[in-house]
Protein backbone atom coordinates (compact mmCIF):
# COMPACT_ATOMS: atom_id res chain seq x y z
CA UNK A 1 0.00 0.00 0.00
CA UNK A 2 2.73 2.39 1.10
CA UNK A 3 4.82 1.63 -2.03
CA UNK A 4 1.95 2.12 -4.42
CA UNK A 5 1.05 5.37 -2.68
CA UNK A 6 4.63 6.55 -3.09
CA UNK A 7 4.68 5.59 -6.79
CA UNK A 8 1.36 7.32 -7.34
CA UNK A 9 2.68 10.51 -5.69
CA UNK A 10 5.85 10.42 -7.79
CA UNK A 11 3.73 9.95 -10.92
CA UNK A 12 1.58 13.00 -10.08
CA UNK A 13 4.69 15.10 -9.35
CA UNK A 14 6.32 14.10 -12.62
CA UNK A 15 3.19 15.18 -14.54
CA UNK A 16 3.09 18.54 -12.74
CA UNK A 17 6.80 19.04 -13.36
CA UNK A 18 6.59 18.24 -17.05
CA UNK A 19 3.55 20.54 -17.45
CA UNK A 20 5.43 23.34 -15.72
CA UNK A 21 8.58 22.95 -17.77
CA UNK A 22 6.51 22.74 -20.95
CA UNK A 23 4.75 25.99 -20.18
CA UNK A 24 8.09 27.56 -19.28
CA UNK A 25 9.57 26.40 -22.60
CA UNK A 26 6.50 27.60 -24.43
CA UNK A 27 6.84 30.97 -22.76
CA UNK A 28 10.47 31.12 -23.91
CA UNK A 29 9.74 29.98 -27.44
CA UNK A 30 6.80 32.28 -28.10
CA UNK A 31 7.49 35.51 -29.91
CA UNK A 32 5.34 38.06 -28.12
CA UNK A 33 5.82 41.67 -27.02
CA UNK A 34 6.74 40.32 -23.57
CA UNK A 35 9.34 37.84 -24.83
CA UNK A 36 10.80 40.49 -27.11
CA UNK A 37 11.06 42.78 -24.08
CA UNK A 38 12.77 39.97 -22.15
CA UNK A 39 15.23 39.37 -25.00
CA UNK A 40 16.12 43.06 -25.13
CA UNK A 41 16.61 43.13 -21.35
CA UNK A 42 18.92 40.12 -21.45
CA UNK A 43 21.42 41.99 -23.60
CA UNK A 44 23.84 43.25 -20.99
CA UNK A 45 24.45 46.95 -21.54
CA UNK A 46 25.55 47.72 -17.98
CA UNK A 47 28.42 50.07 -17.30
CA UNK A 48 31.40 50.08 -17.14
CA UNK A 49 31.53 48.02 -20.37
CA UNK A 50 28.17 48.23 -22.09
CA UNK A 51 27.79 46.11 -25.19
CA UNK A 52 26.28 48.46 -27.77
CA UNK A 53 26.56 46.14 -30.79
CA UNK A 54 24.17 43.46 -29.56
CA UNK A 55 21.20 45.69 -28.66
CA UNK A 56 21.55 47.59 -31.93
CA UNK A 57 21.52 44.40 -33.97
CA UNK A 58 18.46 43.22 -32.00
CA UNK A 59 16.69 46.53 -32.66
CA UNK A 60 17.68 46.52 -36.34
CA UNK A 61 16.08 43.08 -36.72
CA UNK A 62 12.90 44.40 -35.13
CA UNK A 63 12.95 47.51 -37.32
CA UNK A 64 13.35 45.40 -40.46
CA UNK A 65 10.38 43.22 -39.51
CA UNK A 66 8.23 46.26 -38.79
CA UNK A 67 9.36 48.11 -41.91
CA UNK A 68 11.23 51.09 -40.48
CA UNK A 69 14.28 52.61 -42.12
CA UNK A 70 17.42 52.76 -40.02
CA UNK A 71 20.64 54.67 -39.68
CA UNK A 72 23.53 54.29 -37.27
CA UNK A 73 25.53 57.39 -36.42
CA UNK A 74 28.77 57.35 -34.43
CA UNK A 75 30.14 60.58 -32.96
CA UNK A 76 32.50 58.74 -30.62
CA UNK A 77 34.05 55.44 -31.77
CA UNK A 78 32.31 52.44 -30.21
CA UNK A 79 29.37 54.54 -28.98
CA UNK A 80 26.77 54.35 -31.74
CA UNK A 81 23.37 56.01 -31.97
CA UNK A 82 20.59 54.13 -33.73
CA UNK A 83 17.92 56.14 -35.52
CA UNK A 84 14.79 54.45 -36.88
CA UNK A 85 12.35 56.31 -39.07
CA UNK A 86 8.77 56.03 -40.29
CA UNK A 87 8.25 58.65 -42.95
CA UNK A 88 5.14 60.79 -42.73
CA UNK A 89 3.01 61.87 -45.67
CA UNK A 90 3.83 65.57 -45.23
CA UNK A 91 7.58 66.04 -45.14
CA UNK A 92 7.22 69.79 -44.67
CA UNK A 93 5.89 69.40 -41.16
CA UNK A 94 8.38 69.13 -38.26
CA UNK A 95 8.88 65.53 -37.22
CA UNK A 96 8.56 63.90 -33.80
CA UNK A 97 11.15 61.88 -31.95
CA UNK A 98 10.88 59.14 -29.32
CA UNK A 99 14.12 58.65 -27.45
CA UNK A 100 15.51 56.00 -25.10
CA UNK A 101 19.00 55.03 -23.98
CA UNK A 102 20.78 51.76 -24.68
CA UNK A 103 22.89 51.61 -21.52
CA UNK A 104 21.96 50.90 -17.96
CA UNK A 105 23.67 51.12 -14.58
CA UNK A 106 25.42 48.03 -13.11
CA UNK A 107 23.61 45.61 -10.80
CA UNK A 108 24.91 43.71 -7.76
CA UNK A 109 23.63 40.26 -8.76
CA UNK A 110 23.94 38.75 -5.30
CA UNK A 111 21.50 41.29 -3.86
CA UNK A 112 18.72 40.47 -6.32
CA UNK A 113 15.97 37.86 -5.84
CA UNK A 114 16.30 36.93 -9.55
CA UNK A 115 19.45 37.45 -11.61
CA UNK A 116 19.40 41.02 -12.98
CA UNK A 117 20.25 40.05 -16.56
CA UNK A 118 17.90 37.06 -16.83
CA UNK A 119 14.65 39.03 -17.24
CA UNK A 120 12.90 36.36 -15.19
CA UNK A 121 9.11 36.58 -15.28
CA UNK A 122 7.41 35.40 -12.11
CA UNK A 123 4.17 33.49 -12.04
CA UNK A 124 2.36 36.71 -11.13
CA UNK A 125 3.87 38.60 -14.07
CA UNK A 126 6.75 40.58 -12.61
CA UNK A 127 9.69 40.86 -14.99
CA UNK A 128 12.88 41.31 -13.00
CA UNK A 129 15.79 42.92 -14.85
CA UNK A 130 18.20 45.80 -14.80
CA UNK A 131 16.68 48.25 -17.27
CA UNK A 132 13.11 46.97 -16.87
CA UNK A 133 12.08 50.49 -15.76
CA UNK A 134 15.11 52.52 -16.83
CA UNK A 135 14.52 52.49 -19.71
CA UNK A 136 14.41 49.46 -21.95
CA UNK A 137 10.64 49.27 -21.47
CA UNK A 138 9.98 52.37 -23.56
CA UNK A 139 12.56 51.34 -26.16
CA UNK A 140 10.50 48.22 -26.90
CA UNK A 141 7.09 49.82 -26.35
CA UNK A 142 7.77 52.43 -29.08
CA UNK A 143 8.40 49.61 -31.57
CA UNK A 144 5.48 47.47 -30.46
CA UNK A 145 3.13 50.46 -30.69
CA UNK A 146 4.34 51.27 -34.21
CA UNK A 147 3.98 47.63 -35.21
CA UNK A 148 0.36 47.65 -34.04
CA UNK A 149 -0.35 50.97 -35.76
CA UNK A 150 1.10 49.63 -39.01
CA UNK A 151 -0.96 46.47 -38.81
CA UNK A 152 -4.08 48.62 -38.39
CA UNK A 153 -3.22 50.51 -41.57
CA UNK A 154 -2.39 53.78 -39.83
CA UNK A 155 -0.18 56.17 -41.75
CA UNK A 156 1.42 59.19 -40.08
CA UNK A 157 1.22 62.74 -41.36
CA UNK A 158 4.46 63.69 -39.64
CA UNK A 159 7.63 61.69 -39.79
CA UNK A 160 8.29 59.64 -36.66
CA UNK A 161 11.86 58.97 -35.50
CA UNK A 162 12.99 56.67 -32.71
CA UNK A 163 16.46 57.13 -31.30
CA UNK A 164 18.51 54.73 -29.16
CA UNK A 165 21.45 56.52 -27.62
CA UNK A 166 24.50 55.36 -25.64
CA UNK A 167 26.08 56.74 -22.46
CA UNK A 168 23.02 58.35 -20.86
CA UNK A 169 23.94 56.89 -17.49
CA UNK A 170 27.32 58.63 -17.71
CA UNK A 171 25.72 62.01 -18.39
CA UNK A 172 25.07 61.67 -22.11
CA UNK A 173 28.22 63.59 -23.05
CA UNK A 174 29.31 61.01 -25.64
CA UNK A 175 25.74 60.28 -26.65
CA UNK A 176 22.81 62.68 -26.79
CA UNK A 177 24.89 65.78 -26.12
CA UNK A 178 26.89 65.25 -29.31
CA UNK A 179 23.86 64.08 -31.27
CA UNK A 180 21.75 67.13 -30.26
CA UNK A 181 24.56 69.46 -31.38
CA UNK A 182 25.01 67.74 -34.76
CA UNK A 183 23.82 68.65 -38.24
CA UNK A 184 22.19 65.20 -38.45
CA UNK A 185 19.99 66.19 -35.49
CA UNK A 186 19.17 69.58 -36.98
CA UNK A 187 18.20 67.93 -40.27
CA UNK A 188 15.52 65.91 -38.47
CA UNK A 189 13.57 69.18 -38.13
CA UNK A 190 12.02 68.11 -34.85
CA UNK A 191 8.86 69.74 -33.54
CA UNK A 192 8.40 67.65 -30.44
CA UNK A 193 10.27 64.95 -28.52
CA UNK A 194 9.39 62.33 -25.94
CA UNK A 195 11.99 60.84 -23.64
CA UNK A 196 12.07 58.67 -20.52
CA UNK A 197 10.13 59.42 -17.33
CA UNK A 198 9.68 57.47 -14.10
CA UNK A 199 7.37 54.94 -12.54
CA UNK A 200 4.42 56.00 -10.42
CA UNK A 201 3.33 54.05 -7.34
CA UNK A 202 -0.22 55.39 -7.78
CA UNK A 203 -2.87 55.07 -10.50
CA UNK A 204 -1.66 58.09 -12.44
CA UNK A 205 1.19 58.33 -14.93
CA UNK A 206 3.94 60.80 -14.12
CA UNK A 207 5.13 63.30 -16.69
CA UNK A 208 8.15 65.62 -16.57
CA UNK A 209 8.43 69.00 -18.27
CA UNK A 210 11.85 70.01 -17.00
CA UNK A 211 14.85 68.92 -14.98
CA UNK A 212 17.13 70.43 -12.43
CA UNK A 213 20.49 71.45 -13.76
CA UNK A 214 23.62 70.11 -12.08
CA UNK A 215 26.48 72.36 -11.02
CA UNK A 216 29.47 70.60 -9.50
CA UNK A 217 31.28 73.19 -7.47
CA UNK A 218 34.70 73.08 -5.85
CA UNK A 219 35.61 75.83 -3.39
CA UNK A 220 39.17 76.25 -2.30
CA UNK A 221 40.79 78.21 0.51
CA UNK A 222 44.40 79.24 0.96
CA UNK A 223 46.13 80.71 3.96
CA UNK A 224 49.37 80.99 5.83
CA UNK A 225 50.33 77.68 7.44
CA UNK A 226 51.00 77.79 11.14
CA UNK A 227 51.65 75.89 14.32
CA UNK A 228 48.70 73.92 15.61
CA UNK A 229 48.93 75.78 18.92
CA UNK A 230 48.68 79.27 17.48
CA UNK A 231 45.49 81.33 17.17
CA UNK A 232 45.59 83.53 14.08
CA UNK A 233 43.25 84.86 11.40
CA UNK A 234 42.79 83.74 7.82
CA UNK A 235 44.05 80.19 7.96
CA UNK A 236 42.88 78.06 5.02
CA UNK A 237 40.83 75.83 7.33
CA UNK A 238 39.16 78.79 9.05
CA UNK A 239 38.26 80.34 5.69
CA UNK A 240 36.88 77.10 4.35
CA UNK A 241 34.89 76.37 7.53
CA UNK A 242 33.23 79.81 7.35
CA UNK A 243 32.05 78.96 3.86
CA UNK A 244 30.92 75.49 4.85
CA UNK A 245 28.74 77.09 7.55
CA UNK A 246 27.23 79.60 5.11
CA UNK A 247 26.51 76.89 2.55
CA UNK A 248 24.93 74.68 5.23
CA UNK A 249 22.64 77.59 6.23
CA UNK A 250 21.58 78.06 2.58
CA UNK A 251 20.96 74.31 2.32
CA UNK A 252 18.78 74.49 5.43
CA UNK A 253 16.60 77.31 4.06
CA UNK A 254 15.94 75.29 0.91
CA UNK A 255 15.31 72.06 2.80
CA UNK A 256 12.95 73.88 5.21
CA UNK A 257 10.73 74.78 2.23
CA UNK A 258 10.48 71.08 1.39
CA UNK A 259 9.89 70.03 5.00
CA UNK A 260 7.15 72.63 5.39
CA UNK A 261 5.43 71.29 2.28
CA UNK A 262 5.90 74.60 0.43
CA UNK A 263 7.95 73.03 -2.37
CA UNK A 264 8.76 69.64 -3.80
CA UNK A 265 12.31 68.35 -3.60
CA UNK A 266 12.80 69.10 -7.29
CA UNK A 267 11.54 72.69 -6.90
CA UNK A 268 14.33 73.97 -4.68
CA UNK A 269 18.05 74.44 -5.14
CA UNK A 270 19.75 71.51 -3.46
CA UNK A 271 23.34 71.79 -2.34
CA UNK A 272 25.03 68.79 -0.82
CA UNK A 273 28.63 68.41 0.36
CA UNK A 274 30.34 65.54 -1.44
CA UNK A 275 33.94 65.82 -0.24
CA UNK A 276 36.30 67.69 2.04
CA UNK A 277 40.01 67.77 1.43
CA UNK A 278 42.55 69.29 3.82
CA UNK A 279 45.36 68.48 6.20
CA UNK A 280 49.02 67.59 5.90
CA UNK A 281 49.40 63.81 5.50
CA UNK A 282 51.78 61.95 7.81
CA UNK A 283 52.78 58.29 8.04
CA UNK A 284 49.92 57.47 10.41
CA UNK A 285 47.21 59.89 9.24
CA UNK A 286 47.64 63.64 9.41
CA UNK A 287 50.08 65.99 11.06
CA UNK A 288 48.18 67.17 14.13
CA UNK A 289 50.20 70.18 15.22
CA UNK A 290 50.05 72.02 11.93
CA UNK A 291 47.38 74.22 10.35
CA UNK A 292 47.47 73.52 6.59
CA UNK A 293 47.86 76.13 3.87
CA UNK A 294 45.19 74.68 1.58
CA UNK A 295 41.71 73.26 2.04
CA UNK A 296 38.88 72.50 -0.35
CA UNK A 297 35.34 71.18 -0.47
CA UNK A 298 33.18 69.79 -3.25
CA UNK A 299 29.44 70.36 -3.60
CA UNK A 300 26.73 68.92 -5.82
CA UNK A 301 24.23 71.66 -6.61
CA UNK A 302 20.96 71.10 -8.48
CA UNK A 303 19.15 74.15 -9.75
CA UNK A 304 15.48 74.39 -10.70
CA UNK A 305 14.95 75.66 -14.28
CA UNK A 306 13.49 78.92 -12.91
CA UNK A 307 16.52 79.61 -10.69
CA UNK A 308 18.57 82.66 -11.65
CA UNK A 309 22.05 81.43 -12.64
CA UNK A 310 23.62 84.89 -12.34
CA UNK A 311 22.29 85.38 -8.84
CA UNK A 312 23.54 81.96 -7.82
CA UNK A 313 27.00 82.56 -9.17
CA UNK A 314 27.09 85.97 -7.45
CA UNK A 315 26.29 84.24 -4.16
CA UNK A 316 29.11 81.76 -4.74
CA UNK A 317 31.62 84.45 -5.70
CA UNK A 318 30.71 86.88 -2.89
CA UNK A 319 29.68 84.64 0.01
CA UNK A 320 30.77 81.04 -0.51
CA UNK A 321 34.20 81.58 -2.03
CA UNK A 322 35.05 85.28 -1.65
CA UNK A 323 38.47 86.42 -2.76
CA UNK A 324 38.66 88.62 0.34
CA UNK A 325 38.95 85.41 2.35
CA UNK A 326 41.60 84.03 -0.05
CA UNK A 327 39.11 81.75 -1.67
CA UNK A 328 38.59 80.61 -5.25
CA UNK A 329 36.09 78.35 -6.94
CA UNK A 330 35.72 76.27 -10.06
CA UNK A 331 32.87 74.35 -11.63
CA UNK A 332 33.61 70.79 -12.65
CA UNK A 333 30.17 70.74 -14.26
CA UNK A 334 28.07 73.80 -14.94
CA UNK A 335 24.88 72.97 -16.82
CA UNK A 336 22.95 75.66 -18.64
CA UNK A 337 19.77 77.04 -17.17
CA UNK A 338 18.69 78.93 -20.28
CA UNK A 339 18.01 77.60 -23.78
CA UNK A 340 19.42 78.98 -27.04
CA UNK A 341 16.83 81.79 -26.94
CA UNK A 342 17.58 82.73 -23.34
CA UNK A 343 14.47 81.09 -21.86
CA UNK A 344 14.39 78.77 -18.81
CA UNK A 345 14.96 75.23 -20.07
CA UNK A 346 11.51 73.73 -19.59
CA UNK A 347 8.63 72.66 -21.77
CA UNK A 348 5.41 74.68 -21.45
CA UNK A 349 2.49 72.69 -20.08
CA UNK A 350 -0.27 75.15 -20.89
CA UNK A 351 -2.23 76.41 -23.92
CA UNK A 352 0.92 77.87 -25.45
CA UNK A 353 2.08 74.33 -26.21
CA UNK A 354 -0.37 72.41 -28.44
CA UNK A 355 1.77 69.29 -28.15
CA UNK A 356 1.02 69.13 -24.42
CA UNK A 357 -2.71 69.21 -25.06
CA UNK A 358 -2.54 66.46 -27.74
CA UNK A 359 -0.33 64.27 -25.56
CA UNK A 360 -2.63 64.65 -22.54
CA UNK A 361 -5.74 63.83 -24.59
CA UNK A 362 -4.05 60.82 -26.16
CA UNK A 363 -3.17 59.39 -22.74
CA UNK A 364 -6.66 60.05 -21.41
CA UNK A 365 -8.19 58.36 -24.48
CA UNK A 366 -6.72 55.07 -23.21
CA UNK A 367 -8.29 55.54 -19.78
CA UNK A 368 -4.98 56.74 -18.34
CA UNK A 369 -4.65 59.71 -16.04
CA UNK A 370 -1.72 62.10 -15.72
CA UNK A 371 -0.39 63.26 -12.36
CA UNK A 372 0.54 66.92 -11.89
CA UNK A 373 3.50 67.53 -14.26
CA UNK A 374 6.84 67.60 -12.48
CA UNK A 375 10.40 68.79 -12.72
CA UNK A 376 12.72 65.79 -12.50
CA UNK A 377 14.95 65.61 -9.43
CA UNK A 378 17.96 64.40 -11.44
CA UNK A 379 18.82 64.58 -15.13
CA UNK A 380 18.20 62.71 -18.39
CA UNK A 381 19.17 63.32 -22.00
CA UNK A 382 16.10 65.56 -22.37
CA UNK A 383 18.09 68.55 -21.19
CA UNK A 384 20.24 68.61 -24.32
CA UNK A 385 17.16 68.68 -26.53
CA UNK A 386 15.26 71.26 -24.45
CA UNK A 387 18.35 73.46 -24.58
CA UNK A 388 17.87 73.59 -28.37
CA UNK A 389 14.44 75.16 -27.81
CA UNK A 390 12.56 71.96 -28.69
CA UNK A 391 9.71 70.89 -26.38
CA UNK A 392 10.28 67.55 -24.63
CA UNK A 393 8.10 65.55 -22.24
CA UNK A 394 9.63 62.85 -20.04
CA UNK A 395 7.20 59.95 -19.85
CA UNK A 396 7.42 56.23 -19.12
CA UNK A 397 3.91 54.81 -18.75
CA UNK A 398 4.31 52.81 -15.53
CA UNK A 399 1.48 53.31 -13.06
CA UNK A 400 1.01 51.25 -9.87
CA UNK A 401 4.73 50.50 -9.97
CA UNK A 402 7.28 51.27 -7.25
CA UNK A 403 10.14 53.52 -8.37
CA UNK A 404 13.12 51.16 -8.67
CA UNK A 405 15.40 53.18 -10.91
CA UNK A 406 19.03 52.08 -10.25
CA UNK A 407 17.77 49.98 -7.30
CA UNK A 408 18.11 46.26 -6.55
CA UNK A 409 15.27 44.08 -7.88
CA UNK A 410 14.15 46.51 -10.57
CA UNK A 411 11.02 45.05 -12.15
CA UNK A 412 8.05 45.86 -14.32
CA UNK A 413 4.74 44.02 -14.33
CA UNK A 414 3.82 42.44 -17.68
CA UNK A 415 0.35 43.98 -17.71
CA UNK A 416 1.83 47.45 -17.04
CA UNK A 417 4.24 46.92 -19.93
CA UNK A 418 1.38 45.87 -22.24
CA UNK A 419 -0.75 48.85 -21.16
CA UNK A 420 2.21 51.08 -22.04
CA UNK A 421 2.13 49.81 -25.63
CA UNK A 422 -1.52 50.79 -25.87
CA UNK A 423 -0.75 54.24 -24.44
CA UNK A 424 2.05 54.81 -26.97
CA UNK A 425 -0.21 53.68 -29.84
CA UNK A 426 -2.58 56.44 -28.86
CA UNK A 427 0.20 59.00 -28.24
CA UNK A 428 2.15 58.22 -31.42
CA UNK A 429 -0.92 58.28 -33.64
CA UNK A 430 -2.22 61.54 -32.12
CA UNK A 431 1.11 63.40 -32.23
CA UNK A 432 1.98 62.25 -35.74
CA UNK A 433 -1.46 63.26 -37.01
CA UNK A 434 -1.23 66.80 -35.65
CA UNK A 435 -1.52 69.31 -38.51
CA UNK A 436 -0.62 72.58 -36.74
CA UNK A 437 2.64 74.22 -35.64
CA UNK A 438 4.93 74.55 -38.60
CA UNK A 439 7.72 76.31 -36.73
CA UNK A 440 10.23 74.22 -34.80
CA UNK A 441 10.42 76.47 -31.77
CA UNK A 442 7.30 77.19 -29.73
ZN1 LIG B 1 17.21 56.34 -17.76
Which terms summarize this structure?
single chain; 442 residues; alpha+beta; 2 domains; 6-stranded mixed beta sheet; 4-stranded antiparallel beta sheet; binds zinc ion
Structural class: alpha+beta
Please report the number of helical segments: 11
Work out the helicity level.
Answer: 25-40%
Q: Return the CATH class of the largest domain.
A: Alpha Beta
The order of strands across the largest sheet is 1-2-6-3-7-18
Tell me the name of the CATH homologous superfamily of the largest domain: Zn peptidases
Series of secondary-structure elements, N-terminal to C-terminal? HHHEEEEEHEHHEEEEHEEEEEHEHEHEEH
In what range is the share of β-strand residues? Answer: 15-25%
Predict the CATH topology of the largest domain.
Answer: Aminopeptidase
> Whole-Å distance between the termini?
83 Å
Give every kind of bound small molecule, once each: zinc ion
Principal-axes geometry comes out as: globular
Total tally of structural domains: 2
Low-confidence residue ranges: none
CATH architecture label of the largest domain: 3-Layer(aba) Sandwich
Number of strands: 19
How much is the average pLDDT?
93
What does the radius of gyration come to? 26 Å
Tell me about the largest β-sheet.
6 strands, mixed
Amino acid sequence: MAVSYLLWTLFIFSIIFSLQSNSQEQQEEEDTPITRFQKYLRINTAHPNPNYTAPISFLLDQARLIGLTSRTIEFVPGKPILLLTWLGSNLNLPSILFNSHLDYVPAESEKWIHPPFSAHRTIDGLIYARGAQDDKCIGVQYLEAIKNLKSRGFSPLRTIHISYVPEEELGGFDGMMKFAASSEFKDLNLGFVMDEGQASPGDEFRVFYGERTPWHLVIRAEGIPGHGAKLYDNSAMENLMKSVELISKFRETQFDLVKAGKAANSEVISVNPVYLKAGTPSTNGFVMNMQPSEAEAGYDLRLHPMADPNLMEKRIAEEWAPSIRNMTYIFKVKGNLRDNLGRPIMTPIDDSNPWWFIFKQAVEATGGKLAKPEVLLSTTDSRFIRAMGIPVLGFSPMSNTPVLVHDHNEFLRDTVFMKGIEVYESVISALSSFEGVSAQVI
